[in-house]
């Protein structure tokens, strides 16, 4: 598995999810480079027809790089419930519908789990990060954080499914944590640390 050191002055976040964009910007802040997003180029979202988080992340980063001719970083992430055979998984965003109504999505999950006998409530977040360069070189990594389902939703500091996810070893949901505390243990940070080792050695400290 080859590494490539990132040496560009600009990087595009291949996402239309404002919560993800903010988190990725925070993680990339030490680079001291210009961080853009798909919004800056008025790009449409590509069709995410991959079978895994990694495939969908790569679809997004390669699409944005092709459109902008700039290196881009993408995130494909979601939540998986053992009681629901891994759903919603790669369809986590789709469960929220066209209006991105995650309150509706969380209610669907609660209703589905209530129908199970002796549910374990185990779940995990997965994040796949992909960086694409204009010369078609790509790097994709992933990270996972385990936790438990909690109901009703708690907290207003996160986004997506954060209000119903309680990471193992903690008594609060991701949405109850302040952003710096969440970043320290999140699936996105775990994936990002792998990306640092592959592409940003100067950030290692």
Task: Explain what you see.
The longest helix is centred in the first third of the chain and has 16 residues, at 53-68. The protein has five helices and six strands; from the N terminus they run βαβαβαβββαα. A hairpin with a 5-residue loop joins strand 4 and strand 5 (138-149). Helices cover 29% and strands 21% of the residues. A six-stranded mixed sheet has the order 2-1-3-4-5-6. The mean pLDDT is 92. The chain is globular, with a radius of gyration of 17 Å. With 205 residues, it is of the alpha/beta class.
Short account of what is shown:
With 205 residues, the chain is α/β, with parallel strands linked by helices. It has helices at 18-28, 53-68, 102-114, 179-185, 187-199; strands at residues 10-13, 34-37, 72-81, 122-132, 138-149, 165-167.
Task: Describe this protein with a few key phrases.
single chain, alpha/beta, six-stranded mixed beta sheet, 5 helices, 29% helix
Strand and helix layout:
Blueprint: E1 10-13, H1 18-28, E2 34-37, H2 53-68, E3 72-81, H3 102-114, E4 122-132, E5 138-149, E6 165-167, H4 179-185, H5 187-199
Parallel strand pairs: 1-2, 1-3
Antiparallel strand pairs: 3-4, 4-5, 5-6
Task: Measure the end-to-end span.
Answer: 22 Å
Largest sheet: 6 strands, mixed
Shape: globular
Class by alpha and beta content: alpha/beta
Radius of gyration: 17 Å
Return residue spans where pLDDT drops below 50 for at least 5 consecutive residues: none
Spatial strand sequence of the major β-sheet? 2-1-3-4-5-6
Helix content: 25-40%
Average the pLDDT over all residues and give the rounded result: 92
Q: Count of DSSP E strands?
A: 6
Number of helices: 5
- N-to-C SSE series? EHEHEHEEEHH
Strand content: 15-25%
């Amino acid at each position: 598995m080859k590494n490539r050191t990132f040496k560009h002055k600009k990087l595009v976040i291949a996402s239309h999810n404002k919560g993800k964009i903010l988190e990725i910007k925070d993680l990339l802040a030490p680079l001291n480079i210009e961080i853009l997003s798909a919004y800056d180029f008025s790009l449409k979202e590509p069709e995410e027809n991959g079978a895994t988080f990694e495939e969908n992340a790569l679809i997004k980063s390669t699409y944005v790089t092709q459109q902008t001719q700039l290196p881009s970083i993408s995130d494909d992430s979601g939540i998986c419930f053992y009681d629901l055979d891994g759903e919603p998984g790669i369809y986590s965003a789709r469960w929220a519908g066209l209006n991105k109504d995650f309150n509706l999505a969380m209610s669907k999950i609660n209703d589905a789990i209530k129908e199970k006998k002796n549910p374990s409530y185990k779940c995990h977040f997965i994040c796949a990060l992909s960086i694409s360069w204009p010369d078609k070189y790509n790097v994709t990594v992933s990270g996972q954080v385990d936790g438990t389902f909690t109901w009703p939703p708690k907290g207003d500091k996160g986004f997506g499914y954060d209000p119903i996810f309680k990471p193992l070893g903690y008594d609060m949901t991701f949405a109850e944590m302040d952003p710096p505390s969440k970043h320290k243990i999140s699936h996105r940070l775990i994936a990002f640390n792998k990306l640092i080792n592959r592409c940003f050695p100067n950030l290692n400290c």
